[in-house]
Amino acid sequence: MSQPRRGQSITPVILPGFDDGKYEKAKRLLIKALEQADLPTEAIEDVVLRKAPFWTGSQHPRLYHRPDYLRGFSQWHVHLRFKEEIPGPLASVQAATGGLGLFVSETQAR
Length: 110
Prior knowledge:
alpha+beta
């Protein structure tokens, strides 16, 4: 069975900074977040960010509770496409984010 090349967030990803309402800045912050999570950013072919969820059952980022220390940071739903298949689960969740930034493969989300 082949591994997925696409993943999407179930819960919004908290970016390490504020994007000033600029999509390109948000994408740069996402790359920084992925690097901080030790994900292979050179393996990413395409990134799509949006406020509307990709996964049925998810909600707009503003509807998720965030601890006070995360309220100044931007948050987006994310869809990633990798250049090649990648093994294993994909997650950028850290305990400090309270479950935000959880990814699944596109095949799991169907």
